[in-house]
Specification:
The structure holds 2 protein chains of 2 kinds. Chain A is α/β, with parallel strands linked by helices. Chain A is 35% helix and 25% strand. The relative contact order of chain A is 0.17. In chain B, 69% of the residues lie in helices and 0% in strands. The chains are: A alpha/beta, B mainly alpha. At the A-B interface, helix 3 of A face helix 2, helix 9 and helix 10 of B.
Chain lengths: 268, 314
Amino acid sequence: MNEAIAGYANGAGAPATDFAIEIDGLSVWFGQGRDRVDAVKNASFDLPAGSSFGLVGESGSGKSTILRALTGLVKTWDGGLRVNGHDLGRKRSKDFYKQLQMVFQDPYASLHPRHSVDQVLSETLSLHKFNNINDRVEKLLTDVGLGPQFRFRYPHQLSGGQRQRVAIARALAPEPSILLLDEPTSALDVSVQAEILNLLTDLRQEKNLTYLMVSHNLAVVGHLCEHIAVMQNGVIVEVLPVEEMRQLKSSHPYTQNLLQSSLGFVRQ
Amino acid sequence: MNQAHTTLNDSGTSRGMRGWLTADIPRSRWQARASAWYHGWLEFKANRLALLGLCILVALVLIAIFAPWLSPHDPYAQSLSNRLLPLGSEGHLLGTDSLGRDLLSRMIYGSRITLYIVALVALIAPVAGLLMGTVAGYVGGWTDTVLMRITDIFLAFPRLVLALAFVAALGAGIENAVLAIALTAWPPYARIARAETLTIRSSDYISAVKLQGAGTLRIIVKHIWPLCIASLIVRITLDMAGIILAAAGLGFLGLGARPPSPEWGAMIAEGRRFILDHWWVATMPGLAIFTVSLAFNLLGDGLRDLLDPKSHSK
C-alpha cells in the first residue's frame, strides 16, 4: 500500500468525521464450507467527504462486491464499514439510504420494465417521505438533463443513455451525499458514455457529492476520479492518485501491467 | 377508434383520439397508461384467432346477462307431451330433453352457471397461487421449503379425484364444486409464480428499490406481482378450458350442479341415456362446452403472444 498518500491509505490518523466512507479490513464471501468463495479479502481504504475514488481491476476482482457490501445487498461480510462516521451493521435503516445511493451497471436491467419514469421517481420520493412529489420529479428530470416530456414514458421507450439518466435521477432522489457508481457507463456506447460522465461530473460539483466508482475502464476512472485503488483477486494491491496513474508511476507490478495494457490498446 | 375525427394536420401527425393514444410524449399518467393499453390492443387485434376467441367470450357474457330476454322458454318448464323433440321443431330450435324442457333456453341459462364457475375459480386459484409462489420465491429459506412442499402435496393429487373427495365430504353443489376445482387448480400457479419470482428477485431493479428502503411486502406486491401476473393470466385462460371441463365432469358425475339446474355437464349426463336415439340432447351442451373451451384457448394463445415478456423483447 502506498503510505505516502495520507487519507486514502488507512491508518493515516485523520479525524474520522471528515470521511464519507471508511472501510477497514473488509472481507466478503459467498457460499459456505467447501463452496465458500472469498470475493474480497481484507480491503481497507477511506474516502474523504467530497472526494471521488475509483476502484479498478479486471472482472471478478471483487470491485462491485465492495459496493454491494456497502449498500447492504450482500450480507456475508466481516470487518469495519463506516459511512459519514456511523458504523454499519447487517441491517440498514432508511436514514442510511438517504445518505448513500447507488447507480447500477446496466440501465437495461436496473429499471422495472412495467413502471414508467414517473412511477419510479414518485415511488422513491414517497418512500423517503418527501412532500410536493410532483415538483420534485420534474426537478430531478431536469437535473439529469431529461425534459418533462420523458416523465410518463416506460423504459422500453427510452434509449440506454436516457435510461441511465433516469437511474441517476432515482439515485439522486433521496438527496444522498454519497453516490456509488457500478460501472455506470460500460453498457452504453462511446458517445453516450461521454455524456453520462459529463453529467456525473457536473452533478458532483453542483451537489457536492462523494463518488465511489467501480470500473475496468481506466480512461473513465481517469476522467472522473482523483484517486484509484487497484484490485486483483479480491485484494487491493495499490492505492494511488490519478496523476501518478497517468504518469505510469505505480509501484505494484500488476498495476504497471494494467496500465501498460491499456496504453498498448490506445496506441493501436 | 373514431375514424371520422382522425385528421391530419400540417406536420403530418394525426390528432383526435388515435393521436392522443399514440402520442410519443404522454402528458399525463392516465394518457401513458391508456396509450400502453391501446398499443397492446393493436397488437392483439392483429391476431385474428385470438380476436375470435375474445368475441365468443364477450358473446357468452352478453348471453348470460340477457338470458331472460334471449331464451324463448322457461328453462325449467316441463312439458311431457313435447319430450325429446328433434332439432328444428316448431318453437324449439334445438329440440327438447327427456322432460320436454327447451334445450336452447337451458343452454342460454347454463352460460350463467359456466361463467359463475369460471369467474369464481379465476378469482380463487390464481390469487392463492400468486400469493404462495411469490412469497415462497422472494422470502426463500424455510418459508420457501414449507410452502413449496404443501404445493407438492396438492400437486400430487389427481385433480378430479381430489375434487370428488372434496365434494363427497362437503356435499354436492356448484359452490363446493368450484371450491374443489380451485383447491386443485392453484398449485401450478404457485409454481409459475415462484419460478418467475426467482428470476426477478435478484435483478437490479429489485436491488434498486431495496436501496430506497422498500419493505418485503411492497416489493412483492408492487414490483414482483405486476411481472408475474402476465404469465399467470395466460396460464389461467389456457386452464379455463380444463376448468370448464372439470366442472362439467363433476356435473356429469352428479357431484356438481343439482339436477334441475341447467349446467352443461349435468345436461350431458341427462342426455347420455338417449344418446343413440336422440343424439342432440347430449350433443348440444357438449358443443357449447367445446366452443367456450376453444374460445378460452384461442384467447390464451393470443394473450401469451401479447403479455409474455419472454416471447418478445419489450
